[in-house]
Amino acid sequence: MIQNGLNQFKDKNILLLQGPIGPFFKNFAKDLKNVNATVHKINFNGGDCLFYRSGICFNQPIDNFPQFLTHIIQTHKIDIVFLFGDCRPVHKIAHAVLAEMGIEIGVFEEGYIRPDFITLEKHGVNAHSQMSRSISFYTHLTDITKKDAKIIGKSFWYATLWGMMYYTACHATCLFFRHYQHHRTINIWQGLYWIRALWRKWIFSFQQHTVLEKLTRSLSKKYYFVPLQVHNDAQIHYHSDFNSIEEFIKIVIESFELNANTDCHLVIKHHPMDRGFNHYGELIDQLCADETLRSRIHYVHDLHLPTLLTHTKGVIVINSTVGLQALDHNCPVITCGSAIYNMVGLTYQGSLDDYWEDSKKYLLNKLVFENFVNHLIHTTQINGNFYKRFLDTSNHTGVFW
To answer: How far is it, in rounded angstroms, from Cα 229 to Cα 248?
Structure first.
């Protein structure tokens, strides 16, 4: 990690809560110490301990955590707390305590601009972000230049390895951390899901090798695109009205059937990180009792995303960052949940039922979009990756500190 951007934390007392799976917080702490910051860490399970062995263990009932956290902050005179994901149950509790005490909070999250960035914001991310949602703000924004970023490359296998190690350690120490409740299901067979994901990737690649050609030729600009999100994504459970991906699929297909022109098609793409855990083919078949409707709906997996965005006539998301990529391709986008980029001038603001017909009238405000993305990168994005060692904070101005 390049040190210039970390000098703002010199001589600060910093507390880390839960971080991304893997050694990211250990490496982050090492870099903070190199600029003379004092770093403490709270571990909540065996996976946390595996990647940060010197952390302070919290293995009490969750009701005791506010008092425990307050004691740590007061004892070590903490100035700033960093955490990953502001919707985790333990982090929601921490957020309330820290706000009351007036302690600054830095929230890490997966990058809004992927795959070469990660997110770091003050207070909160996604729907909790303090980024302006005003079209006037971005219309009059000046002197924002585009940043060059180093290409990070794929990190799937790094994340898979860290995940298998993390969940194994969680199970091995579950008696010691018997009060801990993870924000996602912890399964000792987690590795088997990733093996199934790899197997399915090969199968789907063989089964669907001709689909992309069809979508880019005979169906080009004749289909709407629906990129799904991971089934246990906090973005869905906390920043939308949907209870599940299944409910989202049902609502989209019903609206498409009733409101889209009969010559239009619908392409539903499974999220690659959810490939080993879920398959929605049977659900889609059940929702399409009519054979004519089923012939217009295409359930796909590992097709090239930029190509799909180039040839689609519109994109429907809950709040996925794919929506930002779609805007970059000048696609009419509608968000069915709360998204940081959902604003006048960028996304369609009407209802889903009206979208199928009205999206043809959509006109992206290119100035607003360009200024929004550049401002987003300058203030919230760091060129780097949670699962590989490269991270460049040298040019992160941030909306804080």
So the answer is: 10
Which 8-state DSSP code applies to residue 381? E
Task: For the sheet with 223-227, list strands across it.
Answer: 297-300, 265-269, 223-227, 314-317, 333-335
Q: Give me the residues paired with residue 165 across strands.
A: none
The per-residue pLDDT for range 124-139, each reduced to its tens digit, is: 999 999 999 999 999 9
List phi, psi (to 5°) of 36: 70, 25
Determine the Cα–Cα distance for residues 66 and 69; give it in Å rounded to an integer.
Answer: 5
Threshold 0.70, pTM exceeds? yes
Q: Determine the 3-state secondary structure of 147 from DSSP.
A: coil
Please name the amino acid found at residue 154: K
Peptide bond into 115 cis (omega under 30): yes
- In tens, the pLDDT along 156-181 reads 788 888 988 998 999 999 999 999 98
By DSSP bridging, strand 381-384 and strand 117-122 are antiparallel
- Cβ atoms of 355 and 258 within 8 Å: the answer is no
Give the contacts of 211 (CB within 8 A, at least 6 positions apart): 298, 300, 303
